[in-house]
């Protein structure tokens, strides 16, 4: 039975020697010896074992990819500990920034939605105000047509007037309302002007 001989790795140069000698058993021992301990170190910062495992794996991967730098490291234990702590802190900071970014987006969405609803409600109130200023029959015909969705024939039956009269009242109501809304749009800033056009497209055509 072959007994694996443990090789003490103190400096970066010791570890570099293992890698250059392709001593897989010794490197595996080195990796296994530090892996779990470093995960516990990282977990104190990131509070997540899967994230800690990924951080520690990345540290070992970096050692393998940049092995030419190992010769400058006097204490490999201190290097590993420092690398894992720094990577863990960077991970936590990234997560905090991502969370802040998401909260910022959510705040903007809420504010934008509230402003949009407020503007739309303001315009609808304006429309209702203008409708109330119409002659009585025009008001009735417009409300039954555009707000309740009745056809001219049904409006005529309900109001006991001809369809032609309904058509005339509707034409008069639209003419007055378009004129008033267009004038309000002309006197408004650009952003609100588009809201008036939207209102006109929704109810006045």
From TrEMBL:
Keywords: Sigma factor, Transcription, Transcription regulation. SUPFAM superfamilies: Sigma2 domain of RNA polymerase sigma factors, Sigma3 and sigma4 domains of RNA polymerase sigma factors. InterPro entries: RNA_pol_sigma-70-like (IPR039425), RNA_pol_sigma-70_dom (IPR014284), RNA_pol_sigma70_bacteroid (IPR014327), RNA_pol_sigma70_r2 (IPR007627), RNA_pol_sigma70_r4_t2 (IPR013249), RNA_pol_sigma_r2 (IPR013325), RNA_pol_sigma_r3/r4-like (IPR013324), Tscrpt_reg_LuxR_C (IPR000792). One of its GO terms (biological process) is DNA-templated transcription initiation. It comes from the Bacteria. Residues 131-187 form the HTH luxR-type domain. GO terms for molecular function: DNA binding; sigma factor activity. Belongs to the sigma-70 factor family. ECF subfamily. This is RNA polymerase sigma-70 factor.
